[in-house]
Amino acid sequence: MKPAAAIIDWVGTGLREELDTCCGGSVATLLDHLLAPGHIDRMHARGNLGALLADAAALAEEPLIAEAYGRCTRRLADELTALLAQGQLAGEIAPGLDPAAGAWWLLSFIASHRFRGTALPEESRTELENGIARLTRRMLTGGAGPRPSGD
Fold first, then answer.
1. Which domain of life is it from (predicted)?
2. CATH of the domain at 64
3. Is residue 149 part of a domain?
4. Helix 99-111 to helix 122-141 angle, to the nearest 10 degrees?
């Protein structure tokens, strides 16, 4: 299972690179990108980074995979925590938000995508996904930062 663990590490690196290069340093713009309609669908499409990470979660009973999955997820949470703290300093993220709790909330929202996709029919899932994304953005920003169009 060592190759599978290496793939998970590679996925984590790719996801962190996307966070680092996306949206020109504005945390609110990064959130808009991450929460945009269709973005999570694309990330979870077969063969994409999000799908590979979600598949790894399902295989986490293997010790090497569980270790790699935990390492990857914690690194993403740390990166998001730092970005949310940076956004607080810039006035884009709610000042009272615990950045670590916000990071794990965001990861939980993204990770539960497959659950919602399995449990709900497409027509109601899309509306629900958009509603949860708007709620997540408002919770993280407290209304600060630029607003996505249609919000």
1. Bacteria
2. 1.10.357.10
3. no
4. 170
Tokens representing 57 are: 């979660």
Q: What is the pLDDT of residue 6?
A: 66
Is residue 122 included in any domain, yes or no? yes
For 92-110, the DSSP string reads: -S-TT--HHHHHHHHHHHH
Work out the burial of residue 83: count CB atoms within 10 Å of its CB; fewer than 13 is exposed, 13-18 middle, 19 or more buried: buried
| CA nearest neighbour of 129 among 12, 10, 36 | 36
- Give the list of residues 6+ apart from residue 72 with CB closer than 8 angstroms, or none: 8, 9, 11, 12, 15, 53, 56
Question: Whole-number mean pLDDT of the chain?
Answer: 77
Give the Cα separation of 75 and 70 in Å (integer). Answer: 8
pLDDT digits (tens, 9 = 90+) for 20-33: 666 567 888 888 88
Token couple for 140 = 């993280």
Q: Are 112 and 57 in contact (CB under 8 A)?
A: no
Residue 14 lies in a domain: yes
Assigned domain for 34 exists: yes
Domain carrying residue 104: 2-141
